[in-house]
């Protein structure tokens, strides 16, 4: 069935699925029920992520259990619909189980390892053949005769077992690598937090301070900033008590009001859910600001810009503090000089 000319290793043979299985048969037609009136009834929908949750597999009535009973080493294949060709190797059945008519069963023989055949039926070679034989119809599907003609590269039995063992080894290594990669974001976040903690304890600039002892201390800087903002430093600093938090001697604790010109709440408008353009005025939504990113496309268009207070427009070097009671969701410094649209 395969049109690809692949040079097989020595002692391998190109054969067909029908030549290496004992039988290819259709399943039992019945209605499923949660009541244990007979054997378990395996269906296409029970095959998820190459596994079966046997506790959720329903039951059915069946007068020919032995004819349809699944055994270890059987492979069931979806015969119709979007899952055509999807397969599952039966390793065990906790209860007597028959398979539904939407499945086709392959009964493997001693000439081919069930694990090897199951692995082949996950390969691109297999799926290319399935796609070829099932396309061209409104409802994709295969039957026993079509499955029997599929090409299978067959190595000697001992080599089949070696291939299966190697696949399992690589699968385990892949799973370990996937698990390690999934942990990286958390590790990066912890690293970022530890770097920030070190930065705001003064650890990162400890050597620099030793090499530059004559730089202006923060207390002098605060005095000057207070004058620029028209605020009395003594009054502003009276409520600060951070004696338990050690910082370098040249640093100082300061109220946030000494470092910003204005804290201003935003406003809400009834706006169309239409992204802002270069010729319109946009209203930034909560979804525009997440940890470390700002998405200017997450906006609504202000219907009547003339009603917008000009002071609400976001200016360059602005902090947005998004608050959704009781949690503060995100803080983001915006360099909006990169954007040509007006946002508020």
From TrEMBL:
CDD domains xrefs: RMtype1_S_Sau13435ORF2165P_TRD2-CR2_like
> Is the keyword DNA-binding in the record?
yes
Q: Which SUPFAM superfamilies match?
A: DNA methylase specificity domain
Type I restriction modification DNA specificity domain residues are 9-172
Q: Which GO terms describe its biological process?
A: DNA restriction-modification system
What Pfam families has UniProt attached to this entry?
Methylase_S (PF01420)
Transmembrane parts of this sequence: none
Gene Ontology molecular function terms on file: DNA binding
From what superkingdom does this record's organism come? Bacteria
Keywords in alphabetical order, please.
Answer: DNA-binding, Restriction system
Q: What family does this chain come from, according to its entry? A: Belongs to the type-I restriction system S methylase family.
Please give the subunit comment from the record. Answer: The methyltransferase is composed of M and S polypeptides.
Q: What is the designated name of this protein?
A: Type I restriction modification DNA specificity domain-containing protein
